[in-house]
Amino acid sequence: MKIMWRAPTFVFLLIGAWTYVQGGDTSTQPQPDAPSPAHPAARAPHPLADMPLWAYGIATLPQPGDTAKPQGWGRQFNPAIDHDEQLKPVLHVAGSSRTYARIDLSDWANAVDWFPDEHVPMPDVVQHGSAALGEKKRACAICHRVNGGGRPENAPVAGLPVEYFLHQLEDFRSGRRRSTDPRKPNVPTMIGIAQAISPDEARAAAEYYAAQSGAPRIRIIESDRAPPLRLHGNLFVATSNERTEPLPDRIAEVLDGEHEQFNDNPHVGYIAYVPLGSIERGRALVAASSAGAQTAALPAAQSCTACHGADLHGLGPAPPLAGRSPSYLVRQLYDFKTGARDGSLALPMKPVASRLSTQQMTDIAAYIASLP
Fold first, then answer.
1. Strand pairing partners for 79?
2. Which of 50, 224, 247, 251 is buried most deeply by CB count within 10 Å?
3. Residue 51, in any domain of the structure
4. CB 176: neighbour CB atoms within 10 A?
5. CA–CA distance, 348 with 148 (Å, rounded to integer)
6. Which domain holds residue 129?
7. Helix 199-210 vs helix 162-174: crossing angle, to nearest 10
8. pTM for the predicted model, two decimal places
9. Do 257 and 138 share a structural domain?
């Protein structure tokens, strides 16, 4: 087993739409040896049968008519916890002099800031949300975190080029950035924010996050097993520290610090358990692309390093990839493949992603996430 420490997150939140087509024998007189149309074997395979469910934080494939509503706003009290208990200032994290109540962690218009001296002052839109949304404001830092690191279920935005950041907001606004999973709730949330945010607010957020590091580093562990997981929204949570579950063809990305998982401590990052051999397989795929070699995986005309830089730390308007969340990277590759991401900056990625299998996406993401 190899254990590697690497740097965290990037790239961008996403949104989805897709077409479901169901086939099968529809004749009223099936041949004697043919299965009945009602039999599962007679139906056409789901068009998203290869969808990496783990990258989307879901357990089942989307179905026709699935949709999502925007996420909530305001202070969200947990009905399972005593109301007054949620108002008591009882939360602390190591190294911070600040104290928060439980309700502060789910106050979508007021982002918790444990270490204000570690960053420049947050713009109002980052800490509190777009003014145009009024009582429905949702702070950027609620999802993308104060340091821009994000979480596996949304976008890491630290270090993004300002113009790339602004372009993605425009793609959300116009409906050209979607998600292959139409149930993903942060997609309509992001669309609403992109449609409400002012140009000045958008640029302030872009410039703030461009200067953030997204620290702490993500920890990459190659293993044939991972801890058992449960879904909490679209985020996987480890239920034990023991690696008891086989890890053949997916990545398990979980919080690195179980005791602080609900405190939003920016000093606590993530662990990504990746399959054995995936980092080297991913390196070979990226190297073949960057060398211009014709492979079944990547078209010779497309080079990862040509757009994203020799070290994959970004080049011009192209975003940095090295050390980003592997869950997010795979999700974006699959969205490029299905056409859910269809903005102008997606054009170079679509032919590349269209030729990748889900396993190859997983290997590439494991390698890129392991880079410093």
1. none
2. 251
3. no
4. 17
5. 25
6. 83-210
7. 130
8. 0.84
9. no
